[in-house]
Amino acid sequence: MLFSCIVFIVVASQPLFAVDLNIYKTVTEVRQSQSGIGMNQYYFKRDEYANIIDGSISWDGTPFVKQEVLNTIDTLKNATVIVRPSYDCTCKSIEATIVDPNTMLLRNLATNGYFYADSRSIEYSSVKPDDGGTTVRFEFKNSSTNFNGTLSYLMRGITWLPSYDLCIQDDNTCSFQAYANIRNNQQQEYQINNTYFYSGDIQLANSYSLDLPYLSILRVAETSQAMANQSSIQADGEQEGFYFYSLKDNYTLHPKSSIRLPFITINVKCNFYYIATTSIGTGEYNGAFQRYYDITPDKFLPAGTLTIRDNQILIGQSSLPDVPVNYTKTITQGEDNDVQYVINGVVTASNKDPEEIAWHTYELLVKISNYKNKDVSGQLD
Question: Quick one: 50 and 91 in the same domain?
Answer without folding.
Answer: no
